[in-house]
Amino acid sequence: MAQRIVDVLVPVALDHTYSYRAPPELDLSVGDLVAVPLGKAETVGVVWSDNVPVRPGLHNRLKDVDATLDYPPLREELRSFVDWVANYTLSPRGMVLRMALRMGELGPERERVAVRLSGPPPQRMTPARRRVMTALSDGLLRTKAEAAKDAGVSTGVIDGLVDEGTLEVVALPPEPVARQPDPDYRAPELTGPQRMATDILRGAVKQGGYTVDLLDGVTGSGKTEVYFEAIAETIRKRRQSLVLMPEIALTAQFLDRFAQRFGVRPAEWHSELGSRRRARTWNAVAAGEVNVVVGARSALFLPYADLGLIVVDEEHDAVYKQEDGVHYHARDMAVVRARIADIPIVLSSATPSVETMVNARRGRYRRLALTQRFGGQSEPAIEAIDLKREGPPRGRFIAPRLAGIVKTALERGDQALLFLNRRGYAPLTLCRACGFRLNCPNCDAWLVDHRFKRQLVCHHCGFTTPPPAACPKCHATESFVACGPGVERLEEEAHTLFPDRRILVLSSDLIASIERMREEFRDIEEGRVDIVIGTQLVAKGHHFPKLNLVGVIDADLGLGSGDPRAAERTFQLLHQVIGRAGREEGRGMGYLQTHQPEHPVMQALIAQDREAFYNSEIAARERLHYPPFGRLASLLVTGADKHAAEGFARKLAMIAPHTDDVRVLGPAEAPLAVVRGRHRFRLMVKSARNFDLSAWLRGWLAQAPKRKGDIKLDVDVDPQSFL
Ligand SMILES: [Zn+2]
Ligand SMILES: [Zn+2]
Questions:
Q1: pLDDT tens across 667-676, in order?
Q2: Ligand number with the minimum distance to the CA of 460
Q3: Order of strands, edge to edge, in the sheet holding 381-386?
Q4: Closest to 86 in 3D by CA, of 77, 97, 100, 75
Q5: Closest ligand relative to 476 C-alpha
């Protein structure tokens, strides 16, 4: 009888599977996780196909599958998804599989222990020890920290009593990944428009099958409450829901709201989870023990036992695009996964991406509009502050009019947010004596002064160095001047203008831990901060009840980048950040400090005419055949040797197969010409909308000349970044 052969996909940078003999005693099925020999090592893999025909005589050269692993098998739906993503993004299938196998390592988590009174009193009694004995006399279990707190002693005292045998240590079971949410825990009070949208989404879940709904609602209109009802319906059907969020680490408020609605918090999935916690979550999701997962983009690759609904919150957010490894857009791939799984998906945003808006206008997606703020609050009124006419004095960044408005708002008891999407103290430092600029030694980029940390940092490669004592060129001392503002410099100015106010800077590089971050957001919510100075970190989804004023320090910042999405990004970011204002009471106000108050983005924001912005942006994209009216791919060639990198890029362009549907532009030196010591050249590929660009690229790259030395080629289908 012929030996049974299976093909196994392994999570390495390969597109193809390997064939192995399946020993009868293993009883393998497609989707099983297995251990297989690969080279000299053993690796985890997934059985991808079964009963593979193999040329006679080859059997004996194949190796055996070593063992099946004790994990739930990967279901057909997830395997098809892996194949689809790999094919579309031109990534090796093994690398996409790797994202689905990030299951961490099962094992004991950092043990949780408690103490309780059990043995005889200690030989040597002290007042501190007596307080512990009294506090713990109820016989209840407490963690060491709780016991120390209740007795008003240090944990050292507790440890001493454990050593003496007075206290007993008891191991606690690990916290469950998530408990069962109750769809009827607290029924929400919905407005008329919310109820209409809710009914439609509930209907989509009840009916099942693939549908795409765009939940398009102004900031503060209660989109979350609406999609919560779709989740409730999915829980009632005993199926799983996935909520994708752009910044999972920053969503304590969201988790609390979820708990208020469903009685418990959902399971979380993001890069900050420890390996053991990750393993338990992965297994619980695969076993169907978890009903709702809230996660970052990687949660899209979890092995759901029975996924019934996907929600993509802030669907327009650029963070959904993964820029390293497999270049995929989590929102687009979420739509694909929903289609493969044949389930509803909800895209939610106050400023939908142009792509999504076009799909909605053409009827491919259903659009559910919420045009009123919850509780009847108005959307913030927006005014421009023209920096050409009423700008701040030299070296300052807050215009006198904005400073006056902030002062009045604070006197009223409101909070103010000063928004500047730039980390650090200053984006450029130069020598006053000779004009020398502090540059990154590895990149074509300035070093950014981070004064809180007393370091100069390259935002592209992470290079850091302490500020030099003297100018490296002219050796002048104390000759360096900061040019331009970062949030740290803005804080300095705010302190001068508002000396007695409580000021908090929020910037991703200043976050010590997620816990600390969540505390800081709570401080703002509960009014323990007067002025918030923040980067885009504050723009997303937060609800600050006392915030009524937002001042944008440099509204033009994102516009000059040469990125085809610059206008869209700027519009979305500014709309979002100003939308933080006036959500609870009073009228929110937004001020845009700008050099170009006549720019269409500023005009649309000021006129509160979102449709005008989409109309003009969609028309421009259509004229230029930019997405979604055409397709783009970017090929980035990099290498330590400039000529070699450029030469390879040129050869590649020369052999591009000719067709009327595709144009290859470049190669051209990338705007960031050098990063990490590597020269960068880009080819842009433009095609018609309905053209199979991935297949064409694959055919082209199969003919590519051999890459010599350290030359790298990075393919990005539907690129979001053009730096
Ligand atoms: Zn100098
Ligand atoms: Zn650098």
A1: 999 988 999 9
A2: 2
A3: 381-386, 589-594, 547-552, 415-419, 531-534, 503-506
A4: 97
A5: 1
Could you tell me which residues come within 8 angstroms of residue 577 by beta carbon, excluding any fewer than 6 positions away? 417, 419, 536, 538, 539, 550, 552
Q: Name, in order, each residue with C-beta under 8 angstroms of 138's C-beta and a sequence gap of 6 or more.
A: none
Q: Which of the two residues, 405 and 3, has the higher pLDDT score?
A: 405
State in Å: Cα 439 to ligand 1 middle: 13
Alpha-carbon distance 343 to 122, whole Å? 63
Ligand number, closest to the Cα atom of 431? 1
**Ligand with smallest separation from the Cα of 446:** 2
Which whole-number Å values give the CA distances from 568 to 313, 321, 442, 540, 625, in the listed order? 18, 15, 31, 16, 16
Q: Which two three-digit tokens encode residue 606?
A: 């000021």
CA distance 31 to 45: 9
Q: What are phi and psi of 467, to 5 degrees?
A: -60, 135
Which ligand lies nearest the alpha carbon of 678?
A: 2
For residue 363, how far is its CA from the centre of ligand 2 (angstroms)? Answer: 45
Q: How far does the centroid of ligand 1 lie from the alpha carbon of residue 470, in Å? A: 8
- Only one residue has tokens 């060639």, namely 637
**92: cis peptide before it, omega within 30°?**
no
Ligand whose nearest atom lies closest to the CA of 458: 2
Where does the pLDDT of residue 103 fall: very low under 50, low under 70, confident under 90, or very high at 90 and above? Answer: confident
Q: Which helix (H) or strand (E) holds 587?
A: none
Separation CA 343–CA 310 (nearest Å): 8
- Among 323, 278, 276, 322, smallest CA distance to 303 is for 278
- State the pTM of this model: 0.86
* Spatial distance between the Cα atoms of 195 and 200, rounded to a whole number of angstroms: 9
Q: How far is the CA of 393 from the centre of ligand 1 (A)?
A: 26
Residue 445 Cα to ligand 1 midpoint, Å, equals 18
From the CA of 447, the nearest ligand is 2
Q: Hey, how many other C-beta atoms are within 10 angstroms of the C-beta on 655?
A: 11
Chain-centroid distance of CA 127 in Å reads: 51
Cα–Cα distance between 460 and 407 in angstroms, integer? Answer: 37
Phi then psi for 508, rounded to 5 degrees? -60, -30
In the three-class reduction of DSSP (H, G, I as helix; E, B as strand; rest coil), residue 265 is classed as coil
Q: Considering every ligand atom, which ligand is closest to the CA of 481?
A: 1
| Centre of ligand 2 from the C-alpha of residue 453, in Å | 18
Residue 566 three-state SS = helix
pLDDT digits (tens, 9 = 90+) for 146-175: 888 889 888 889 999 999 888 988 887 777
Query: What tens digit of pLDDT does each residue of 435-473 get?
Result: 999 999 998 889 999 998 899 999 888 899 999 999 999
668 forms beta bridges with: 682
pLDDT beyond 70 at 248: no
* Number of neighbouring beta carbons within 10 Å of residue 80: 14
The rounded Å distance from CA 481 to ligand 1 centre is: 11
CA of 433 to the centre of ligand 1 (A): 5
Expressed in angstroms and rounded, the spacing between residue 443 Cα and the centre of ligand 2 is 4
| Dist. CA 482 → ligand 1 center (Å) | 13
Ligand nearest to the CA of residue 470, numbered in listed order? 1
